[in-house]
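ARCHIVE CARD
Drawer: 12
Card no.: 0347
Subject: one protein chain, sequence and derived structure
Cross-reference: see card 0346
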Amino acid sequence: MSLLFTEFHLPAPNGGFTLANRTVVAPMCQYSSIDGLANDWHLFHWANLLNSGASALILEATGVTADGRITPHCLGLYNDACEVALADHLHRARALAPAVKVGIQLCHAGRKASSAAPWEGGALIDPSQPNGWPTRAPSAIPQNPNEVPPIALDKAGLEEIKAAFATAAIRAERLGVDFIELHGAHGYLIHQFLSPVANQRTDEYGGSSANRMRFPLEIFAAVREVYKGVLGIRLSASDWVTDGWTPEETVVLCNALKAHDVSYIHVSSGGVSHAQKITIKPGYQVDFAKKVKEETGLPTIAVGLITDPTQAQEILERGEADLVALARAFLYKPRWVWEAAAALGGQVEAAPQYWRCLPREHQNVFKTLKIGQR
C-alpha cells in the first residue's frame, strides 16, 4: 500500500489518536465571519473538506481575543456566542463525515491584527476607522514602515493573552474538536515574539534566543495545563531575512516543547517581515520539516506547494515528514485524496451517496463499496 494511505499515531497525555492516512487539510482563513461567529459559509466549507478523503481537517486561524483576529471578518473563540455558533455549525458539518479528525488552530495576530481581507487589499486598518482597532505586539514596531505602530505588551497584557489561549482551548474541547494547534507562524503574535525582527524587548522576553522563546513556551504550557489531548503547533522555521528567526532556533524551540508533551510540529515559514525573500517552488518548505523531524524526532507535518500525489508520496518515502498538509489545492480539487488513492493504489472512506461516482477502473478506491441495482 502507498505510504500516503497508511495510518499514523499522534501522541498526547490522554493517549492521542490514530489518523487513517497521512494527508491533512491545512487551516485556511475564510474571512467570512461577523463578530467572530461561524455561519453557513463555514458549514459549507467544512462539510466539503470533511468529504475530501483527508484524515484530518484543521479549522482556520481562530482568534483567542477579539483584538487578536487577523481581520474583522475572522473566526473567533473568545466568548460564549462564538463558542455556541462554532459548535452548532461544526456539529452539523461533522455529522456528514464523522470519521475525520477535526482540529482548530488558535491564534492571536498581534501587530498583524486589524487588517483588511486579502480581496480588500490586506493592509492594516487604521484604529480610527470603524472596523479598525489598536494592535498589540512584543514591541512597538509595525509590520510595514508606513503603518500605525502596535502597542508594546506589558506584563499584564502578556498574562491576559496567555489566559485567553487557555480559555479558548477549554472552549475548543467543550465544542468537541479532536485536537488543537497553536498558530506560531506567518508573523502572528507567537512568531513575533520568536523573531528578532519583531521582538526588540529589553526584558526577560526579548534579546537572546532563549528569552524570545520564553512567552511562546509559556503560552504552550498554559494550554497544555488545561488540555491533555493532541496539541501541536505551526511554526515558521525561517523568516527568510538576514538576522531573523532561523531553522536552527526552530529546532531548539521544538526540543524545548517536548517538556510540554507537544504532539506534532506543523512546519511552515515566513510572514514576519515585508523584506522577506522567498523562492517559491514545489515543496519549498519541506526541507524545514525534514530538519525538524531529523533533529528532534517529533512528528512533523510538511506543507508548501504540495500538489501532486507522487510528490506527497515521495516526501513520506524519503522520511522528510510524517504527514503532508495541503490547503488551496483542496479548494481547487476538493476530492484530491480520492485522486491520490486512484493514482497510488490507496483506499479512503467516502459517503455512500458518492459511491457511484468512481470511474470503472478505480472501483477499489473506496474502502466500503456495496452498490446494488434494480
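Annotation on reverse: The two ends are 34 Å apart (CA to CA). The chain has a mean pLDDT of 95.
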